[in-house]
């Protein structure tokens, strides 16, 4: 911590401080990957505008609930504009600052462009992915945050233990139809008709039984 305070707010480091976390997020010790340590002030960031009036488009009219971490990540990209942000790792904090490590990828490097596991980042549609909530930290909040009612992750459809398995009726219906389509794939047309009619009769009986119970 004492060493971090002597450095500027943005400094390049040779290797990640938390290599286990960095590798889980996709970092590799190869050419094209760069680590920057970033220092941001703790607490919220309020936009310095008089009386809370922001002249411009509605997307820029936020005054409160702004985060120093996001603004500092944007500042890093303004200085290293030829890099693409991969993810961000939280390190330590003191009474005034929080320290993060930002994993950057050089999409123009041949080691990255020739690697089929990572060269999808070279596609121009992935520019400024950190501003659209496409990093691992951005997917935990905002529009990508998981709700209690429904979710769209394929892993949850498999019912993995320890995960939330509550699905909306629409998602449950779509998954059931997909399973039925896979089940009927090997049958002929006559058998498919018989199976579908049998399922329809069974569903009607279940509905009648439910009505009688209520």
From TrEMBL:
The keyword Ribosomal protein applies. It comes from the Eukaryota. One of its GO terms (cellular component) is cytosolic large ribosomal subunit. One of its GO terms (molecular function) is mRNA binding. InterPro entries: Rbsml_eL15_core_dom_sf, Ribosomal_eL15, Ribosomal_eL15_CS, Ribosomal_uL23/eL15/eS24_sf. GO terms for biological process: cytoplasmic translation. PROSITE patterns: RIBOSOMAL_L15E. Keywords: Ribonucleoprotein, Ribosomal protein. Belongs to the eukaryotic ribosomal protein eL15 family. This is Ribosomal protein L15. It comes from Hevea brasiliensis.
